[in-house]
Amino acid sequence: MTDTLHITSHCIISNNVVYGNGKTVFENKGADVGAFVLSAYQFLEVKYPKFYKMDNLSKLGLLASEVLLKDSGISEKYKEQEVGIVLTNSNSSLDADIKYYDQAKTIASPALFVYTLPNIVIGEISIKNKFKGENAFFVFEQFDATFMHQYVAYLLNNNILQACICGWVDVLKEDYQVVLYLVEGAAGQTSVPFTVQNLNDIYLSAK
Amino acid sequence: MMKPVFIVADNILSPIGSTTAENFDKLTQNISGVKEHQGGDRSAGPFYASLFSDDHPLLNNQSDEYTKFEQLLIASVTDALKNSGLDSTDPKTVLIISTTKGNISMLETDADDLELNHRIALPTSAKLVAQRFGFVNQPLVISHACISGLMAMITGMRLVQSGQYDNAVVVGGDVITRFVLSGFQSFQAISGRPCKPFDLNRDGINLGEGAATVILSSKQQKDDNIQLAGGSVSNDANHISGPSKTGEELFFAIDAALKNAGVEPAAIDFISAHGTATVYNDEMEAKAINLAGMQDIPVNSLKGYYGHTLGASGLIEAVIAAHSLKHNTIIPTRGFNELGVTQSLNVAKELQTFPLTACLKTASGFGGCNAAIVLRKS
Fold first, then answer.
1. Which of A15, A200, A204, B377 has its CA 20 to 30 A from that of A140?
2. What confidence score (pLDDT) does residue B1 get?
3. Which CATH number fits domain B226-377: 3.40.47.10, 2.130.10.10, 3.40.50.620, 3.10.129.10?
4. Calpha distance B103→B175 (Å, rounded)
């Protein structure tokens, strides 16, 4: 039953602040997106050189997943195919698309082209953590907590997944918004029930 | 056991034909949409691809209201709805759209500003298409690389099984423009000739344009409606642009899809593979099929007829697979001559006719994603 699903962790990256379960973890006001993500990467000691090649969508998603999963014990608790990722946004990969196309006017770069799909951020999080389960990328005008709840609950209630990283990761030029949730069957120390209300409350908390 | 979900109508709109029947018929005659094209607006030099002609009657380009991409979706849904007996304004019907790049060609023609950002957004296209048919529920948009089409079908299946909707109109499409072609060229993934899936001499993909629609329903309409019996998605967690070295993760998806459908591997009569004709993809698929113990089951790829149609590929190929079941006919793998993967595989080389009951359809994509569905006669 969906009553027994829990948001055991959440991470928001918004307005150059990184929040872990509602607490400020890092901030760098005044930096542009590029400088901000780099400074967050260094501060959080992510230590993952592949980060430098990523586009901003993947960088933001990866950083948020690091904060989200810290101390979650997720890799110890579940098998690889039991953890999945469901992400959404409104701009798809347009930020990377524009950058790719600008560069392609001179010479097309495969390193930029590969990021011209929004699900690549799912790929990057999966690779770093070895998550092999169900994954999906939907594009919405705005965050849809009702859909997110229903879709993720379906995956967990039908034992397609045992844990799901879900939420919203969007960036276009200097505008970005990241809200990630970790949803599991068992409650944790700081968890809240997985409900549409809680998804929305958390989403709105950093605006 | 999950309640069954039926494909009650479908359409393929491709350079080969504007209806499923036309497409299937042409395939049985070994007619392909892949041709050599001059570079034109898309490329510096000539290239092989399956493209709509500039004067295609359904894509009249005179409309300011809809882009070519949106016209493709609209035309495909129109044809499928015609034969479905369903009302698009029904509150228990949802529209699901699958695409990788949507209107990305607008970057080539329009200035980069806020208006462009809004117009080019996939939900904008989805809203326009939904409004055209009077769909009352918010359309869903799936953009998940080359598994988008199968993922859209799986999402529709789950929404119908859960009872949230009775019907799901699932449509996918992609247009081939400079943006996409240049990207794949930069990867050196494009073959300089018609592609050769699973072949020893395969050297890359052909791109293709197309759209397809599958209408899923909880209510069977005809005896010969094919069921979408199960599906699953996985991730390689290995590399963002190269597939898994072992094929294990595609195998997980195949295994989970079969279990979801309640179908044993031995009950599968043929496999419609992704078969893009790159060295790595076809090798990985062969490994996955062997891990599943399904290497003796006839396997085909349709990329030699359609090229790789990206967001439409899962849907176009699933529709052909469904009609293959209906007609008890397996379409051969155009372009295949000699097996060129390290694993044993039974690649369909000729048109084969014998009683068919169930098939498996797979897809894989950038980002390390894999998807599998099972189709079955009712």
1. A15
2. 57
3. 3.40.47.10
4. 8
* Total beta-carbon pairs less than 8 A apart between chain A and chain B: 150
Give residue-wise pLDDT tens across range B300-358.
999 999 999 999 999 999 999 999 999 999 999 999 999 999 999 999 999 999 999 99
Beta strand spans in A29-134 (E): 83-89
Give the class (CATH, top level) of B6-217: alpha beta
**pLDDT single digits (tens) B10-25:** 999 999 999 999 999 9
Question: With an 8 Å Cβ cutoff, are B237 and A110 in contact?
Answer: no
SS3 A170: strand
Mean pLDDT score of chain A, rounded to an integer? 96
Name, in order, each residue with C-beta under 8 angstroms of B365's C-beta and a sequence gap of 6 or more.
Answer: A117, A119, B144, B145, B146, B147, B148
pTM: 0.98
Q: Do B183 and A133 touch (CB under 8 A)?
A: no
Chain A nearest C-alpha distance from B349 (Å): 33
Burial of residue B242, with CB atoms counted within 10 A of its CB: 0-12 exposed, 13-18 middle, 19 or more buried: middle
Helix, strand or coil for residue B290?
helix
Cα dihedral A81/A82/A85/A86 (nearest 10): 120
CB contact under 8 A, A97 and B143: no
Q: Which residue has the tokens 């011209």?
A: A116
The ipTM value here is 0.97
